[in-house]
C-alpha cells in the first residue's frame, strides 16, 4: 500500500512539474495545469458542473487537434483519485465548444459521390441539448445516369432538402464516437413534393444516415494527452455528450489510469528527454 501511495505521489509531482514556468520546456507545452484543490470558476469553464471532473487531484489540459486539417481547440478537465493499488480513478469533462464552432466548416461538403447519386451537405448550426447534439443544415441531391466509365452522366432529378439530425456520442476504446440517432428531412417546394412522391426523399434520408454515420465513425473524438502520458494507459469505461448550458457541447468520461511503478518510470524518462525534469547523474 505504501508503494502505491508513493507512485501516486510521484504522478502528482510529475503533473506539477509540467506547470507553465516550471522546467525548461514547460512554457512551450504551456497548457497543463494541476491543482490539489477544487478549481475556481472562470469564464472559460462557466456552465461546466465541477462534479463531472471531481477528484482529489485535478488537472486541466488545453490542446489543438486537427480534424480534416482544421485546428480544433479542446479543453479537458480531469479529476484523479485512488481506485486500486496500481490505478487511479479518472473523471474527465471535455469542453467541445471549439469543435462545435468549427463543426459547420468540418462537416460541410460532399457526403456521397458516385455515378448514380451525389449528395452534398451544408451545415448551418450545431447545438447541444441534454445528452444529444442537434445538427441543422441542408442536403442537395443529384440523381444521374451512369456513363460507361462509371462517371455521372445525364441528371434526371435534383432536389434540396432541409435537414435536422440528432446525434450522440458513446465511449469506444479511448475515444468518443458519435452516431446519428435520427434525421428529419423537409423537401423544399414543388420539386420536394415530387421527390416525396417518387420516394427519393427516403433515399436521401438513408444516404444521410448511412454515409453520415460512416463519416462520424471514422472520425472519433479522443481526449488529447501529452505524448509522455499515453503510457498511463487510460481506460474509459463510460461517458457521452453533455450540454454546457445554454446549448454548448461537451462530453463526460469516466475511467482509470495506470500508476504502476513501471509506468511512472516511463513517464519520468519521457519528461527527462524533454528537459522538463532534471536528474542527478
TrEMBL record:
The keyword Signal applies. Residues 1-26 form the signal peptide. Keywords: Signal. It comes from the Bacteria. This is Lipoprotein.
Amino acid at each position: 500500500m505504501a508503494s502505491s501511495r508513493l507512485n501516486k505521489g510521484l504522478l502528482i509531482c510529475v503533473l506539477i512539474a509540467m506547470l507553465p514556468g516550471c522546467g525548461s520546456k514547460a512554457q512551450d507545452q504551456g497548457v497543463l495545469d494541476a491543482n490539489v484543490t477544487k478549481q475556481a470558476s472562470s469564464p472559460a469553464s462557466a456552465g461546466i458542473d465541477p462534479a463531472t471532473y471531481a477528484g482529489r487531484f485535478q488537472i486541466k489540459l488545453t490542446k489543438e487537434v486537427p480534424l480534416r486539417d482544421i485546428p480544433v481547440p479542446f479543453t479537458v478537465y480531469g479529476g484523479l483519485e485512488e481506485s486500486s493499488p496500481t490505478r487511479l480513478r479518472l473523471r474527465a469533462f471535455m469542453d467541445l465548444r471549439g469543435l462545435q464552432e468549427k463543426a459547420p466548416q468540418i462537416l460541410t461538403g460532399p457526403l456521397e459521390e458516385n455515378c448514380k447519386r451525389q449528395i452534398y451537405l451544408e451545415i448551418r448550426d450545431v447545438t447541444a441539448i441534454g445528452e444529444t447534439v442537434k445538427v441543422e443544415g441542408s442536403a442537395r441531391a443529384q440523381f444521374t445516369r451512369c456513363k460507361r466509365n462509371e462517371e455521372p452522366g445525364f441528371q434526371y432529378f435534383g432536389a434540396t432538402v432541409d435537414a435536422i439530425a440528432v446525434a450522440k456520442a458513446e465511449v469506444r476504446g479511448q475515444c468518443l464516437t458519435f452516431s446519428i440517432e435520427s434525421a428529419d428531412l423537409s423537401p423544399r417546394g414543388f420539386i420536394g413534393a415530387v421527390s416525396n412522391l417518387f420516394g427519393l426523399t427516403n433515399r436521401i434520408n438513408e444516404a444521410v444516415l448511412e454515409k453520415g454515420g460512416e463519416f462520424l465513425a471514422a472520425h472519433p473524438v479522443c481526449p488529447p494527452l501529452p505524448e509522455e502520458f499515453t503510457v498511463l494507459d487510460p481506460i474509459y469505461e463510460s461517458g457521452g455528450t453533455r450540454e454546457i448550458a445554454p446549448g454548448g457541447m461537451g462530453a463526460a468520461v469516466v475511467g482509470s489510469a495506470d500508476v504502476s511503478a513501471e509506468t511512472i518510470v516511463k513517464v519520468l524518462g519521457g519528461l527527462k528527454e524533454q528537459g522538463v525534469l532534471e536528474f542527478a547523474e
